Automatic annotation (TrEMBL):
Name this polypeptide is given: Uncharacterized protein
Organism domain of life: Bacteria
Length: 67
């Protein structure tokens, strides 16, 4: 366990209780966000790589003119 000031997420991760309820709420949201990001990264890494065709041609749309 480290000494000195701790961020709320680090304090909770090390088993310490936050000083204020607001810190606990912030720490919970930070942890949830970190877990969502990790899950998203794992999902991206587990997908097979898609091969894209280099034969893509741009589509041009002509402007209509009235006579």
């Amino acid at each position: 366990m480290s000494c000195g000031q701790e961020s709320a997420p680090d304090a909770i991760a090390e088993g310490m209780l936050p000083l204020l309820p607001a810190q606990a709420e912030v720490a919970r949201r930070v942890r949830e966000n970190e877990l969502r990001q990790l899950a998203f990264q794992r999902e991206l890494l587990s997908r097979p790589e898609k091969k894209h065709s280099n034969n893509v041609k741009p589509i041009f749309i002509a402007n209509k003119t009235t006579c």
